[in-house]
Amino acid sequence: MIRELAIVALLFVPPGSPSPDSDLTNLLASLRSDIKPDEAIQYVRLIHSTDRWFTFPKFMETAQYVKRTLETIGLKHVEIVNAPADGISQVGYWTMPMAWDVKHARLELLKNDVTQEFRLLADYEKVPTSLGMWSGSTPPEGITADLVELPSEEPAQIEKLNLRGKLVLTRQNPSGIKWVLAKSGALGAVNTFTENPGLPDGRQWINSWGDNGWACTDGSSALLCFSISPRQAAYVRKRLAEKGSLRVKATVDSRYYRGSYPYVTGVIPGASPPAPQHSSTGNGRNVRHLALSGEQSRAGAPDSCCDEHRHTGRALRTARLRIYVLPQSTRRKILRGCFRAARRSRLFCFRFATLALACLSKCRCLHGRADDRYPDGVAI
Fold first, then answer.
1. pLDDT of the residue at 316
2. Tens digit of pLDDT for each residue in 270-284?
3. Residue 369's CB: how many other CB atoms inside 10 A?
4. For 190-249, how does the pLDDT look when each residue is reduced to its tens digit (9 = 90+)?
5. Contacts of 82 (CB under 8 A, 6+ apart)
6. Tens digit of each residue's pLDDT (9 = 90 or more) over 310-334
7. In the chain, domain spans
8. What CATH number has the domain spanning 95-257?
9. 3-state SS string over the chain?
10. How far is CA 340 from CA 217, 263, 321, 333, 335, in A?
């Protein structure tokens, strides 16, 4: 019977040990000696070098690197699986997104009296997050339009505005109102929302641009989408208050196509068959949330992913780590116990705490059972 499961990683102290505290101290010292921060930051740099562009060809490059890395650190049965990215394939109630690629994109203010610092608002080749993922394209020569600010971002109010052929400046993430912008005939959106307003030159990555939810699927409108920094937004709003509207030129060379959404899967082998084995899967850009692109995203997550897999494999092979599959109903009790134990003891191994908590939180919506190919393992 298929049940909802939670996976818990527990440090194993052999029974009969005279001093559990001493065993734990020795174990943590051994684990710390295996941590390689230089190698971890290299994972981050190499994955970020491809994933920062957030196009589907770059996702494949990331997946290929992750596959090589997981094989190097000792995982078995590592492979890249290509899920369809065609905008129509469905898994349950989920419709897979369209594949998307972009070569270059720019957004420029056109008035002669514009301060030179703010003339170029977006340049994908310099700052990838200045373009929203799944942005539509323009003719090769670009398109000139008015940039206006929405007085209200309530859909009922937006529908009353004359936005046809205009770019609109938004205070909230425009993905939530894209459908009504398309309905109103807008050319696209220029986002000013940010999760980190204290970063005046940071840009919020817009990675949701579908008409009916996150993904851009077959039939979604091909609106343009840019994202500017808080510093740029303040300047643009000042000019809009003086002029009412601004003329801008947008140039985007992007395309939608039917491709694939790669993910990587592998197995951390146990000490010997049929010892416990841990199967780990992840998106080509997202091996257990591997390297979400954008200045405010988690490009450091491959450190946790690859390092955890390396440490976990070593601990499993030496019988110092056991992975248990438990009913989800016990997850909160286990979490509370983990936190109480952490408060009582100053000995705390960050890597394995991260692994245990990540497994627990990641399995909230997991439905599955042990994989017959890998005894005592569970496919995540």
1. 53
2. 665 554 444 444 443
3. 12
4. 999 999 999 999 999 999 999 988 889 999 999 999 999 999 999 999 999 998 889 999
5. 260, 261, 262
6. 555 565 555 444 444 455 555 555 5
7. 3-86+270-368, 95-257
8. 3.50.30.30
9. CCEEEEEEEEECCCCCCCCHHHHHHHHHHHHHHCCCHHHHHHHHHHHHHHHCCCCHHHHHHHHHHHHHHHHHCCCEEEEEEEEEEECCCEECCEECCEEEEEEEEEEEECCCCCCHHHHEEEECCCCHHHECCCCCCCCCCCEEEEEEECCCCCHHHHCCCCCCCCEEEECCCHHHHHHHHHHCCCCEEEECCCCCCCCCCCCCCCCCCECCECCCCCCCCCCEEEECCHHHHHHHHHHHHHHCCEEEEEEEEEEEECEEEEEEEEEECCCCCCCCCEEEEEECCECCCCCCCCCCCCCCHHHHHHHHHHHHHHHHHCCCEEEEEEEHHHHHHHHHHHHHHHHHCCCCCHHHHHHHHHHHHHHHHCEECECCCCCCCEEC
10. 46, 36, 20, 11, 9
167 vs 22, residue with greater confidence? 167
- Give me the residue label for tokens 């596959």: 67
Average pLDDT of every residue of the chain: 77
